[in-house]
Specification:
Length: 1002
Amino acid sequence: MSVNRTEGRVASLAKAGFADTAAAQRELDDPLLAGLAGTDLVAALAAVADPDLGLRGVGRLMAALETEPRRAQLRALLADDSPHRRRLLAVLGFSSALADHLCRHPDHWRDLGALDPGDRPGADAVRAALLTAVGADPAAAVPVAAGEQADLLDALRVAYRRHVTALAALDLADRLDVAAVAADLADLAGATLEAALAVARAGLPGSAPDCRLAVIAMGKAGGRELNYASDVDVVFVAEPPADAPDDATGWLTTATTLATALMRACSVYTGEGTIWPVDAALRPEGKQGPLVRTVASHAAYYRDWAKTWEFQALLKARPVAGDRELGQQYVDAVMPMVWTAAGRDHFVDDVHAMRRRVEDHIRPAEADRQLKLGPGGLRDVEFAVQLLQLVHGRADVSLHDGNTLGALAALTAGGYVGRDDGAVLDAAYRFLRTFEHRIQLRGLRRTHVVPDSDELLRVLARSLALRQPAELDDVWHQQAREVRRLHEKLFYRPLLSAVARLPGDGVRLSPEAALARLRALGYADPAGALRHLEALTTGVSRRAAIQRTLLPVLLGWFADAPEPDTGLAGFRKVSEALGTTPWYLRLLRDDGAAAERMARVLASGRYATELLLRAPESVAMLGDDDALRLRERGPLEKEVLAGVQRHDDPVAAIGVVRAMRRRELFRVTVADLAAAAPVEAVGEALTAIAEATLSGALAAATRAVEASRGGPLPTRLAVVAMGRLGGREMGYASDADVLFVHTPYPDEDETQAASAALAVANELTRLLSLPSPEPSLTVDAALRPEGKQGPLVRTLASYAAYYDRWGEVWERQALLRAAPCCGDPELLRRFSALIDPLRWPTAGLTDGQLRDVRRIKARVESERLPRGADPSMHLKLGPGGLADVEWTAQLLQLRHASSVPALRTTSTPGALAAAVSAGLLAADDRSVLEDSWRLAARIRNATVLVTGRPSDMLPKDPKTLAAVSQVLGYGAGESTLFVDDYHRCARKARSVVERLFYDDAR
């Protein structure tokens, strides 16, 4: 071979991933591989995890075939790009153990050609194949093997390894889901146990008494999540034959003999190696107890003597071999005890301690490389899932699943694990299990330790479709960190102790335990939280005793809310304000719903907490569903007007109004946060509060001006609602947009009347702007004629003259949301009659006016957007935001309200609904617009609830964004999904707006 050709071949081998190119050249030059030199065999091997091992395996398999015709068939396969070749090379190029099996049984390579990833043999078919391999009749009620014991043991091993090879080929080449692989391995284990039992029966002496024997799989075999190389945990259950007399003897001895022989049949080494150890140590009393027990004996043990960990182990119990009816009797007898185990004394602490013991037994040299037992390993997921199952499975049968991923899915679906947490744990567990499978499959060795050999890590990385060991290391540790974070969050949260109803000290937090648990629960300032806890629980008072009982439950609820630290701090402040009030702690202690509502509200952000701290007695409404119903304007207005009449001092009078507003804002906040009230209902309730507030403020201002004048007002005065107030779509931070209108009484001096009306308007504004720690209600009259440059108060005639001579189309548009608010009813009626022809013009809009509306909107978008702001993040002025939807609805009103009476509404959703009914808007377009409008309004409200401050922007701060997303119902860690959902919704709305507002001729 020429030097250039040799160098080219070496380069191609190195490029294909061969580590030892010299050895690979020698293999390719072997006469047995003659005829393959011109094929793409090297390129095909480049796709396997270990090309060197794969090429050696090809040579070994070719040699093992012995005859030339058989070798020619293999050469033909290797020269042809097919799924069969891909699967064979995947096995030879990764698992040395399975390569050994193929070389020992060279005809088994043909099995891989008939494989179908989507049509793998089921459990019954695998059972039949394994029983047939040992000469037993699969259809027999009690299968018995036929043949010499030594031959049967070899046959069992060969059949088992043959199935493993086929499954591994699909796993490596077709990337089967790890859950499917683990389930198939468990089914194969069950079939193997059935065949081993048939072999054991064949070895019984003919005089042995008959018995019924069931094999119960435990652990990973029971959960149908078995590894390639693992012990198979079992429990044996026996009973005498159904027709045996009551005094029958010897049957238990037979059962014990069969169980012992079954275990030996699987674990003993023969010329074909071994299968796996069968471990019965999970039986009652462990290795010290009898190998076989009756159902009644098992039930009595678990009822009287079993420890907590034994019930946890029983979660995965499943009959897999022998007498299936008996196996089901065992499950029916013990499972009810599993689902009451969480009520045992110190259950949660026992499980925690068991988990710590597992970690303590890790060898120090392996601690950093333990895939199963180490921090962030498989056991973290399994323990967390099992604990949650045992605690909540008492009342929820959907959690009765022995499979870890199945149980995790049920916990997520049931709301016991957050959607994001559940998805992260599912993905991490699948990766860790796949990694574990690859480590074990290499040599079919039972190990959970990540190797430290760079070469082996390179092979493992390639088997997982990763390029380099460093990439594998990064992915592994990232997944482990996520698992550990969520394990601590779920596994150690005190809420579980409360749910399990542990008595005495089991639910009380010591300062030492509290700091660790608070950190695990997600408190940003564990030390600060601990100080709050110490203040709340220290002492021997009744209040401290009750709070020590309450806090484990509340801490869990706080932790599940957006702002745990805010919740705990708020609870302390409210408790300090009300702790001596007898009903307060009694309410929280005796009413779980009230306590949970309080935790949810306090830990959702600053807004509700600050309201409650100003009026802590509002806690009382948390325990009364009727008290949480949103109130209408009438009763609120009646209350404040009566209160105002009792105070001559306007400041004292406005204090009554503010007290009402403070209380009612808290009521709305609770309905929003705890009962997920629709955004329209929130807007309606907030509008009713604002109207009652303005009505009370108008009454107080009127009394003050009349007192200073020494007589009644010389004019009728009214307040007209505009903007969101008029549309009954107020948010928590909305201003009160208004117009002031008056009309002098007959024979009254117009100048004096105007002066008095202005004095009342100014006094109303002053009273509502007095400094206060609670949320303010800003009165904004900027929508009046001539804006801020025009007079604050006008007569009805002045409004008529202005609109007739100077009114612009944008002012007509603003009047679409004008509605009576408070003051003189007759004057409000006359004002409505004045503006109705203006906002609902008979001729609709001229082409020029239509152009003006569109031009003004474009100018608003360009001029009012804050400098440097990302338009897509602006909830009001951004594409698909509130303004887009509202202007589109208002354009339809301006053009068609004169002929469609239903369009004469101040409500944005109401106008859209009317447009659909009139055939002016497609139902699908309405849905898109309303969805975007509602979501933007909800985000604005949620931002105020979290931060206590108004904002028209999606939050930039990740912590605030996460909190807002949780208030809106997203899980922890789903803030990115939340932002994506808003942008998708807004984009769809903008598309409709551009078509309807700018292009549609309707």
